[in-house]
Write a structure and sequence with these properties.
Radius of gyration: 19 Å
Distance between the termini: 12 Å
Mean pLDDT: 88
Number of domains: 1
Structural class: mainly alpha
Low-confidence stretches: 222-227
Helix content: 55-70%
Order of helices and strands: HHHHHHHH
Oligomer: single chain
Shape: globular
Largest sheet: none
Number of strands: 0
Length: 227
């Protein structure tokens, strides 16, 4: 039996996915400390001018900011379980890579939140979950925009991908109208996310599969075919 069988959730797939999920949790921890540092640096900066925000109406979309992203998180795990179980580890590693890269960027580019921002730093959701994921000055680039867009790129079921693209556009409108991000944070999110997706596909995927194969051979003393 091929341990990397595409149509079955084999023990090898389960172990691989568990390790990838641990990697994602590690990336989230890095993001937490990067966000805390970005908040300290951002308080010392001044709000920047933004031509698009100057002409956009200020709209309170904080409920979408919080619950729309919660919907994305629920949907990405549900869709991953139902449609991409055999690729779950790959998807988890991609999100870990995106989060790590964003953590690096928010430290490099400390910016003050836009003037007039409608902060979503109250309520049960923020106090119990949000304050570990979202910070006041972690601006470049917009995670609310980038993470659903990555779902659009990686999910192979087309209608599922389109739902993620719709969520990404909705989140982009939300953070702009609520003044929670500068326009450059939103537009850059699409370019950077696509670059991460292509970079992983071009440079990381084959070495990862070879390493996975070698580890399996070493542990189980077998010679499975590559997935």
């Amino acid at each position: 039996m091929n341990p990397w069988e595409r149509q079955r959730l084999t023990p090898a797939r389960v172990v691989e996915t568990a390790v990838a999920f641990g990697g994602l949790l590690g990336a989230i921890c890095v993001n937490y400390y990067a966000g805390k540092l970005a908040d300290v640096q951002g308080e010392l900066a001044r709000p920047l001018p933004d031509l698009l925000l100057r002409h956009l109406p200020l709209v309170d979309m904080r409920i979408v900011f919080v619950w729309g992203f919660a919907l994305f998180l629920a949907w990405v795990f549900a869709a991953g379980f139902w449609f991409e179980r055999h690729r779950a580890a790959h998807i988890l590693w991609l999100y870990a890579l995106l989060i790590l890269l964003r953590s690096f960027f928010i430290i490099l580019t400390p910016m003050h939140v836009p003037k007039g921002a409608l902060l979503a730093h109250e309520g049960w959701v923020y106090q119990n979950v949000g304050r570990y994921l979202n910070f006041k000055h972690d601006l470049f680039f917009s995670a609310h925009t980038a993470m659903p867009y990555l779902g659009y790129l990686v999910f192979r079921e087309r209608w599922v991908g389109w739902t993620f693209l719709g969520l990404s556009v909705l989140m982009a409108m939300t953070v702009l109208c609520s003044r929670l991000h500068y326009s450059i944070d939103v537009f850059a999110a699409y370019f950077i996310t696509y670059a991460v997706y292509r970079l992983e596909r071009r440079w990381f995927r084959r070495p990862y599969r070879r390493l996975r194969h070698a580890i399996f051979v070493w542990l189980w003393r077998s010679d499975p075919a590559e997935a």
